[in-house]
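Checklist before submission:
- one chain only
- standard amino acids only
- sequence pasted in full

Submission:
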Amino acid sequence: MPDRSIWTNEALAALVEPDRVHRMAYTDQQIFDLEMERIFERLWVYIGHESQIPNPGDYYLARVGRQPMMMTRDHHGDIHVLYNRCPHRGAQLCSARNGNAGKTLRCSYHAWTFSLDGKIESIPAVNGYDGTRFDKNDPQFQVKRAPRAESYRGFFFASLAEDGPSLKDHLGHAATALDQLIDRAPDGEIEVVGDCFRMEQHSNWKIFLENQIDVSHPGATHESTGYAAMTVESELEQQGEKPPLEYTFLSDFQRIGIEGWDKFGTTGHPQGHCTLEGYMGLRPDDPDTKEYVRRMYAAYGEKRAEEILGTNLHHVLLYPCNSVQPMLQQLRTIRPVATNLTMSEIWLFRLKGAPEAIYDRSLAYYYLVNSPSTMVNADDLFNWWKCQHGLESAGGDWVSLHRNAGHDLPPDERGIIQSAPQTMSELPLRHMMHIWKDYMTDGIAAGYGERRG
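Returned file contents:
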């Protein structure tokens, strides 16, 4: 392997081959620093949803790469994405994760105050600056804005690069994930419910993304959880009781098994996004679902409602930081901290106009599968930690991504590639690493379909 003291574009490109990836991509500090610069501080990174700051003066903190940022709502109702830094001496303006700043942002160090869009409002003893180079109107004395901030239907993203594709172009056809979150609401609106679950994952950020779309792991990793849930279901049935629908969230891991996951298709998009399709319909024949469908028909008409409800996307990865489960009204985002440490947040959304039972169903999945205390999460976190430790060892240099390599379908007219039918192809994992190579070497995330062979 090349000298890793200087990661040239050629050296970085050599880490990714058509069917394997070098372990240094997950463990090297210099590579992590380059990822922050070339991916997380250049691409569109998720900040939050507008419903997290519903009132004037509200703010919410987020990290974009290594940069502390905040999303604010001003008293005209407009939303801004700012660096969380006072331009005077550098103190962070807000320290609580979220809150309400009132009419202005006030630095606790020297009481400089700023409007909620970052413009300077007042400075104590301002006459002390007379005859100096200080100019209140100079942009360097305003709270710095994110170079670019855009919203897609209320989901706010920021890019710290002055130039680049628009948010709409970056999302591409994967914007369906966010459309589905909203369109499944009969009233056409959603809102965040409470605060998020927040977890430290002692593993590289790429391991999280790979796991979300890795169809060969659920039947193995979560086998014991699925078995326990199936045992309880069986006991209830023997007693003449019908098991709650929520048990299937866990028992499916055992019921489907390992080999059964070959029926679920995956895709890779030109920007790095990936999807897992066909896993969970969540449209049982029960009164609650019938009432929900009735309301959808009333809101959209039968044809459009069926188009929305018939879109079966279990997971959509919005590269580089989001995992969206539209049918379960949940969105995760990751904030890389170090080569072996990642912070994840998972948010639950309420579909406005839907029956409360539909919210309760998604809440059950939120608690049973995605909360920090579940067996499912414990299974994943432990395996990711073990992967990280294994990759840091000298037990081998390469990560195998050989499953169905070279056998997936060619790109369609949109540039989207699909996994070979009836396989557990590692297409998404290969795809993300090839896109990673393009971003890391200042390439363009196009042409992967031609290279993959």
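Reviewer check: The longest helix spans residues 375-391.
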